[in-house]
């Protein structure tokens, strides 16, 4: 039965609007059976790793990094919703608490951002980065050089106008605490590169100037512990795609698996030259400092922990840093293995044709994911006319198109490297079939996010091109190798050209027409849900999990 409890009145503070609003959460009207079902769709996974390879000083550093990461978590709550304490006040049902924490607010991120409970209304496209009553027209008419900065909140003045508030001022308490913790961690760092990065990142938090710390992060080579912290991705800002949200990762290097990837970073220029698009769209040269490594992740905080969990990282996003130093591609092996075992394999058993299921392999999943991150560094950072970055030209469409590019070019990279003889004994059907199975895993996140729209673009495009077909008798999907190869080439070309042209309108059309979940696919997703297959994972994490 639906749980019956007293009506709870919560005064919820929306950090983005700067004003209080009363929201009625009538728990008797909340279908707690549905909430429990939703919470059960996240498989629990302990973020563990061996600390035997770490020195005593490195182990002593970890609690400081955990605490610094927690500051990013607190900031992201303010960016995504507002006052977490107010939201949680009086909420007692454990599954409802779990869902609010997973989503950093009352909207289901893997369910098109629909409200989890009645009465909260639609999620603002600009999250809490902008005033809730601000229109696009008002923003665009407002003249302030900081308005489109990655590192400012937009707020109302006392007179009712708009003002830009730097992050280090808006989140002063958390920022100052994090900076102190990073400096303490730097004192314990034995690796000079890690020490320089932690010191530079502390300064960056206090100034909102991240260039030097990004450069320092790129120069780290031999550290056992890696740490990512700060305002990084712009996915949360679905109004303009301007504002970077705070997050943190704590990572421990897997040296054995990292050794397997060393050779690929040197091949980025060759991949750029071979891109399946006209010469003008591949005229830039990827940075030579790109490197690839494999890690066990031991902590997620903030943006990366909201809804679906990241399993690979490609950073930094700054085009100037990429041009000078390239980028780093970090594969999160333990989280990746969890998604493969708990989600991808069970999905394949439901939706992949029986005779092709043996092609679904972890190594192929790892490769597809790894080269997705490699692909972020390919293509154009500036538009062909040289007037702006691709990010600036595509605005709110940028992240969806960028993820679409990485999705499809990642698979193309595997194909191209095989053509170049860089793989031995490679069966590309493993990658193709695993890629298709991966689409079914990813589209369960819904089509509300940038990643969700990217998933749907490739699914609908591939289906229209006959890359795979559904068996009407078994209800399973079968890959057609040649059709999939051709679709891979043509979609790669399309996305690369839209980016290079900075064509905002064409990007919008592609997203509107193909970035949607159609009825037949929804039935397949419902079948997966009915089979009890988790949609994603939720972590048991923290110092105590590591025995610290």
Task: Please explain how this structure is put together.
There is one protein chain. With 548 residues, the chain is of the alpha+beta class. The chain is built from 21 helices and 15 strands. The protein has helices spanning 32-39, 56-80, 84-88, 94-103, 136-141, 167-170, 172-188, 192-207, 211-218, 255-259, 268-274, 319-325, 333-351, 362-376, 390-394, 398-419, 428-443, 450-464, 481-501, 504-514, 519-530, and strands spanning 8-14, 19-25, 42-46, 107-108, 114-115, 152-156, 162-166, 225-233, 245-253, 291-302, 312-315, 328-332, 468-470, 477-479, 536-540. The strands form six sheets. A five-stranded mixed sheet has the order 8-9-10-12-11. It has a two-stranded antiparallel sheet with strand order 1-2. A two-stranded parallel sheet has the order 3-15. A hairpin with a 4-residue loop joins strand 1 (8-14) and strand 2 (19-25). Helix 7 (172-188) packs antiparallel against helix 8 (192-207), helix 14 (362-376) packs across helix 17 and helix 16 (398-419) packs antiparallel against helix 17. The longest helix is centred in the N-terminal third of the chain and has 25 residues, at 56-80. It is globular, with a radius of gyration of 23 Å. Residues 1-24 have low confidence and may be disordered.
Helix percentage: 40-55%
Global shape:
globular
The chain-level structural class is: alpha+beta
Low-confidence stretches: 1-24
Radius of gyration: 23 Å
Q: Which band does the percent of strand residues land in?
A: 15-25%
With helices defined by DSSP (H or I, 4 residues minimum), what is the helix count?
Answer: 21
β-strand number:
15
Q: What is the average of the pLDDT values?
A: 90
Order of strands in the sheet with most strands = 8-9-10-12-11
Question: Describe the biggest sheet?
Answer: 5 strands, mixed
Distance between the termini: 42 Å
């Amino acid at each position: 039965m639906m749980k019956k409890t007293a009506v709870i009145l919560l005064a919820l503070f929306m950090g983005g609007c700067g004003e209080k609003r009363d929201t009625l959460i009538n728990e008797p009207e909340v279908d707690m059976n549905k909430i429990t079902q939703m919470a059960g769709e996240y498989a629990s996974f302990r973020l563990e790793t061996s600390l035997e390879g770490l020195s005593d000083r490195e182990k002593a550093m970890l609690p400081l990094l955990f605490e610094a990461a927690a500051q990013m978590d607190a900031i992201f709550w303010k960016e995504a919703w507002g006052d977490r304490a107010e939201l949680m006040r009086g909420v007692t049902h454990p599954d409802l608490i779990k869902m609010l924490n997973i989503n950093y607010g009352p909207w289901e991120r893997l369910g098109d951002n629909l409200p989890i409970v009645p009465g909260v209304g639609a999620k603002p496209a600009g999250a809490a980065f902008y005033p809730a009553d601000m229109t696009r027209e008002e923003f665009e008419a407002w003249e302030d050089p900081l308005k489109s900065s990655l590192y400012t909140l937009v707020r109302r003045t006392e007179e009712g106008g708009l003002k830009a508030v730097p992050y280090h001022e808006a989140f002063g308490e958390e920022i100052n605490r994090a900076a102190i913790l990073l400096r303490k961690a730097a004192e314990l760092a034995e690796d000079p590169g890690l020490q320089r990065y932690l010191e530079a990142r502390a300064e960056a938090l206090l100034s909102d100037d991240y260039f030097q710390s990004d450069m320092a992060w790129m120069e780290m080579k031999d550290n056992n512990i890696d740490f990512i912290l700060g305002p990084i991705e712009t996915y949360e800002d679905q109004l303009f795609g301007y504002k970077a949200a705070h997050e943190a990762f704590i990572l421990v290097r897997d040296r054995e698996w990292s050794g397997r990837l060393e050779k690929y970073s040197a091949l980025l220029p060759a991949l750029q030259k071979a891109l399946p698009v006209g010469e003008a769209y591949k005229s830039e040269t990827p940075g030579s400092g790109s490197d690839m490594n494999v890690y066990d992740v031991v902590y997620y905080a903030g943006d990366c922990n909201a809804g679906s969990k990241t399993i690979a990282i490609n950073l930094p996003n700054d085009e100037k840093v990429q041009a000078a130093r390239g980028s780093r591609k970090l594969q999160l092996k333990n989280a990746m293995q969890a998604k493969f075992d708990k989600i991808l394999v069970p999905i394949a058993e439901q939706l992949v044709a029986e005779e092709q299921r043996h092609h679904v392999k972890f190594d192929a999943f790892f490769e597809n994911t790894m080269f997705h991150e490699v692909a972020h560094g390919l293509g154009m950072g500036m538009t062909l006319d040289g007037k702006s970055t691709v990010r600036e030209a595509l605005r709110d469409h940028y992240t969806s198109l960028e993820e679409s590019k990485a999705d499809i070019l990642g698979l193309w990279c595997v194909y191209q490297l095989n053509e170049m003889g860089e793989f031995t004994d490679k069966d590309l059907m493993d990658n193709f079939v695993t890629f298709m199975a991966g689409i079914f895993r990813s589209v369960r996140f819904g089509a509300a996010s940038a990643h969700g729209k990217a998933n749907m673009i490739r699914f609908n495009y591939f289906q229209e091109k006959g890359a795979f077909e559904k068996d009407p008798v078994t209800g399973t999907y079968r890959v057609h190798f040649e059709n999939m190869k051709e679709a891979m080439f043509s979609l790669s070309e399309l996305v690369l050209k839209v980016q290079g042209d900075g064509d905002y309108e064409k990007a919008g059309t592609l997203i509107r027409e193909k970035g949607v979940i159609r009825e037949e696919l929804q039935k397949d997703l419902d079948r997966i849900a009915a089979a009890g297959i988790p949609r994603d994972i939720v972590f048991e994490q923290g110092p105590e999990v590591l025995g610290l």
